[in-house]
Write a structure and sequence with these properties.
Elements (H helix, E strand, L loop, with lengths): L1 E5 L6 H11 L3 E3 L2 H11 L11 H18 L2 E5 L5 H13 L4 E6 L3 H10 L7 H13 L1 H15 L2 E3 L6 H11 L9
Parallel strand pairs: 1-3, 1-4, 2-3, 4-5
Length: 186
């Protein structure tokens, strides 16, 4: 099984995913950005968002299937996907690979998200890297809320308003909605 945690950049996906890995037996974190970093290295002449690269979308499904087949573990995947056609392409690839998918959407209030983005430090010793990360995340706020209105909420199996919820509370809601994540697999 693959648990996709979608939401805005800075919305708590990775923190939630890390806590889920601690609470879901026999699970592991799969970070799709690692596939993107590899492609950036291989395809330096194609700058920009690696989600725009068709090889990234295909490779994500293949890597997820191979890791799942090799480990037998539930994969917990924090990944902002804001373009419906990309989400469908990724989901289709996972279906071909016969991986069950559960989709969670984190949706904090805009003011809370903006405050989180403004306060986020990715590299405490490199202020220029922090500002670059913040600028990228700010540039994705409007597209997130547009996608949320247009299709994301309906596409998710569970949408969680995490404006006033801490990550542990979000994890509790996810596990309540998907009890199969914590059942023993023999």
């Amino acid at each position: 099984m693959l648990l996709h945690i979608n939401g805005p950049f800075g919305g708590g996906k990775t923190t939630t995913a890390e806590l889920l890995v601690e609470r879901v037996p026999d699970s592991r974190l799969l970070d799709p950005e690692e596939i993107g970093f590899m492609l950036r290295h291989l395809l330096p002449d194609h700058p920009g968002d690696f989600q725009d690269l068709p090889p990234w979308r295909a490779l994500f499904a293949t890597v997820a299937a191979q890791v799942h087949a090799f480990t037998g573990q539930t994969l917990i995947v924090p990944m902002s996907v804001l373009r419906r056609e990309y989400a469908e392409e990724i989901l289709d690839g996972l279906r071909v690979e016969e991986i069950e998918v559960r989709r969670v959407l984190l949706r904090p209030d805009r003011a809370v998200l903006e405050a989180r983005v403004a306060a986020h430090d990715v590299a405490p010793d490199h202020p220029e890297a922090n500002e670059g990360a913040r600028a990228f995340r700010r540039s994705r706020i409007d597209p997130f809320y547009r996608a949320d209105r247009e299709w994301l909420r309906a596409w998710a199996d569970l949408a969680v308003d995490n404006t006033d919820l801490g990550p542990a509370q979000v994890v509790d809601r996810v596990l309540q909605r998907f009890p199969e994540l914590t059942r023993n697999r023999t």
